[in-house]
Amino acid sequence: MNTSPITSYDQLVAKAITISCEGRRKTVAVAAAQDADVIDAVSQAQADGFIDGILVGDAKNIRALAEQNCANLAHLTIVDEPDVDRAAHAAVRLAADRKADVIMKGFLPTSAILKVVLDKQYGLRGPNTLSHCAVLDIPGYHKLLNFTDGGMVVKPTPAQKLEIIDNAVLIGRALGISPVKVALSVVSTSELMIDASRKTGGMLIEGPLSFEQATSRSASELYGLRSDIAGDTDVYVVDSIEECNVVAKSLINFADAVFAGVIVGAKVPVSLVSRTDTVRNKKASLAVACLIADYYMQNRVWEN
Question: Over 70: is that where the pLDDT of 237 sits?
């Protein structure tokens, strides 16, 4: 278990390496792995020593892309499956059979891989709505900031928001944070905060808070806001996918934030970033997924 909170991208990778050195190295199954940056990220993560990788996809294309980009495939397993849908099923089946701890999206639509993850035959669906968390290492902010939901639920209902908060708090715990400080950007929040506090322990929750108030203590003081979490937020819960994407993409594109994207709510984390994301961001996504998978195992989350 974590002894101190993870507060940066470098610490994410270092912790994933520590977990591996302690004998708990995670295996990542990549669905439709014929993507140059995905191959590079998996190869680098394997070389760093924190994953074993299984690349499921068009083997000929995978090898060609690796050669073009000087990615080392020597220690990675390749499962030849050119058909994208069958590759998704093969990768998810590895997780269902406990031969992989993390699923990673390769060169296929997000909806395609998640449809397979939710297929009842694999038994990977948890009790909560699946939600996306964008864990950002932002220059100028003193710790990681988790934005949710920016990739799954377009306009969540209050019930779905509770589950989205629950999923995000779980990531906070996997990062060693206690209590997890949650800020809500929605306009009407009092009932949601009460329900969330009852449902999800180990957190502080407040709202509505603007992004400025949530991340700047001095700004919140100028507004006359009395808050236990202003300027020190761990999770920022948005009202819609559009809101999350505008804020997160702005930070990634203009402030050089490192982005680790992961889908939570299933019995294995799904490492998920967009096709345009950098190798660094894909590697960050792998690292945070490994920490989540280890938290599941160490705390027997899915055995309770």
Answer: yes
